[in-house]
Amino acid sequence: MLDGSTSGNETGLAGLQDRVSEPADETPSSRFLQAELELNAHLNGLAFGQPVCYVYKPLEYAWDTHRCYVEKYCQPGKKVLFLGMNPGPFGMAQTGVPFGEVKSVVDWLKISGEVGHPAEEHPKRRILGLGCTQSEVSGARFWGFFRKLCGEPEQFFRHCFVHNLCPLIFMSASGKNLTPPELPAAEREALLSLCDAALCKVVEALNVSMVIGVGRVAEQRARRALSAAGVDVRVEGIMHPSPRNPLANKGWEEVAKAKLADLGVLPLLSSS
């Protein structure tokens, strides 16, 4: 059974704590990073059995790039939080950025920093960081869509931010990506209950008025968690851009744009 402790080349939580602004610096980015550090500490107490054989924690080994993303774009004035479920093997697992397809992260978001390695790596799922050449389709679609709409990342992040409910990535012995819903029930609920509590802190830190789940699972989980905690925020959803979703392969951008128009979000993305 895999436990959540930190070892190998991963940066210890104490070391990460030292690299966050002092608590007196009550900016959205500092509150956001603090909530993530607290979640990491709790997640390190969990253990995972079969079918999970590898657990990657990009908020530890890719903390430099993740912190760059948060401090660069998590500024006051947010109205909408786009919420994914958890990292993909060629996205956030490589870059520390949600939906973090490398080309989008480097060329459009202009994120830089050091990326280390998990304590144990699957030989077919090596972490190459910002040098990874394999594209993640979901991330390329997601950020590519907003690049077309907004032109510059500052326009998107003027009112919006992107976050994942769960910061861990799980893999089987074969290297197959396992999403949180695929975990055994007891382990899944122990994991997601901690992530739910952290989401409530993040939403309050950002003071957004709307959470948009990217995919039905993220939407449903956010609605349940925020409602149970009494957090006054509107929860909606858009289709996930995953290539495993046949509908997304038939024109995800058009579907996403229509839904964002219905939700009244498109004017927030326009410079006019």
Task: State the gist of this model.
Helices cover 43% and strands 12% of the residues.
Strand order of the largest sheet: 5-4-8-9
Per DSSP, what share of the residues sits in E-state strands of 2 or more residues? Answer: 5-15%
Quick one: biggest sheet? 4 strands, parallel
Give the oligomeric state of the chains in this entry, treating copies of one chain as homo and distinct chains as hetero.
single chain
In which range does the helix fraction lie?
40-55%
How would you describe the overall organization of this protein?
This protein is of the alpha/beta class and 272 residues long. The protein has helices at residues 13-17, 28-43, 58-61, 63-73, 92-95, 102-108, 137-150, 153-157, 185-206, 216-228, 252-262, 266-269, and strands at 2-3, 47-48, 54-56, 80-84, 160-164, 169-171, 177-178, 210-214, 234-238. The radius of gyration is 17 Å and the shape is globular.
Chain-wise SSE layout:
Blueprint: E1 2-3, H1 13-17, H2 28-43, E2 47-48, E3 54-56, H3 58-61, H4 63-73, E4 80-84, H5 92-95, H6 102-108, H7 137-150, H8 153-157, E5 160-164, E6 169-171, E7 177-178, H9 185-206, E8 210-214, H10 216-228, E9 234-238, H11 252-262, H12 266-269
